Amino acid sequence: MQPTKMFLGMEAVIESEQIRTLLGTIERVARSQATVLITGESGSGKELIARAVHHYSSRSHKPWVDLSCAALPEHLIEASCSVTKKGLSAGPIL
């Protein structure tokens, strides 16, 4: 029998130990309040990972919003990624 796991509400056959480990990491991160930066080459599955983090998070009842950073001017991305607390900026997180 092939190993199966529920993934994004569907039963998935997952034979790779590395992918099972990745899914466990996604579930742990999603339960935290951590900010997550997902990087990778085009077509590597970044959006699927982001959707999984959202699906397993406490915010899953809220809408999923797609954002293509490639479509945004650089200054808007930098402004969106700046951390501000009590009027102080930690600078862009890129």
Largest sheet: 2 strands, antiparallel
Structural class: alpha+beta
Q: Tell me the number of helical segments per DSSP (H or I, 4 or more residues long).
A: 3
**What is the strand content?**
15-25%
Mean pLDDT across the residues is 79
Helix and strand pattern: EEHHHEE
Helix content: 25-40%
Strand order in space, largest sheet: 1-2
Radius of gyration: 16 Å
The counted number of beta strands is 4
- Poorly predicted ranges: none
Distance between the amino and carboxyl termini: 43 Å
User: Which word captures the global form?
Assistant: globular
Structural description of this entry:
With 94 residues, this protein is of the alpha+beta class. It has three helices and four strands. It has a two-stranded antiparallel ribbon with strand order 1-2. It has a two-stranded antiparallel sheet with strand order 3-4. A hairpin with a 2-residue loop joins strand 3 (82-85) and strand 4 (88-92). Helix 1 crosses helix 2. The longest helix has 15 residues, at 17-31. The model has no long low-confidence stretch (mean pLDDT 79).
